[in-house]
Amino acid sequence: MTHMLARHRAEMIVAEAARGKPVREIAKAYGHSPTTIRDYARGRRIPGEEARADGFEPFAAYCRRRLADDPHLRAPALLAEVSSLGLDISRATFYRALERHGLSAHPCPGCHPAAVSVSATLAPARHLRPIPLPIPAAGSTRCRC
Predict the structure, then answer these.
(1) What is the distance between the alpha carbons of residues 142 and 26, in angstroms, rounded to a whole number?
(2) Within the chain, how many helices (H) and strands (E) appear?
(3) What is the DSSP string of 73-115?
């Protein structure tokens, strides 16, 4: 979804900025964010033209299908897939796009162990013997959703 200000409103904002009125004052007077005002004032957005298109839009249907086909697909793996197909956005932008389009990667959080930070892992002590891990019961590693 793209947004744009009405041409006459955007032109008034540009005119006020050209006269030297501070961006915050213009934003407060017109009820828009300072970022929007700055974009129009600096020429990054043109009055009467739509904002840049949502780069994720062409990939939304693909993501929806992949998540339907594999309900356990994690968001980082999906991002890697769509990146290889040509989507060039950051991880945070990808997560916001998933949310904006109503997509949820792997809705059952009980299926995956808690994430462990690489920087938080400790080096094993050399003088201690490793504690054997319990053997998982048959079928306990599968998701039951």
Answers:
(1) 57
(2) 6, 0
(3) --HHHHHHHHHHTT----HHHHHHHHHHTT--S---GGGSPPP
Residue 103 and residue 63 in contact, taking contact as beta carbons nearer than 8 Å = yes
3-state secondary structure of 56: coil
pLDDT tens-place string over residues 3-44: 678 888 889 999 999 999 999 999 999 999 898 899 888 888
Is the Cβ–Cβ distance between 90 and 78 less than 8 Å?
Answer: no
Report DSSP state, residue 123: P
Query: What is the reported pLDDT for 18?
Result: 94
- Are the CB atoms for 101 and 61 separated by under 8 Å? no
CA distance 41 to 27: 11
Tally of CB atoms within 10 A around 114: 5
Distance CA 75, CA 110 (A): 16
pLDDT tops 80 at residue 61: yes
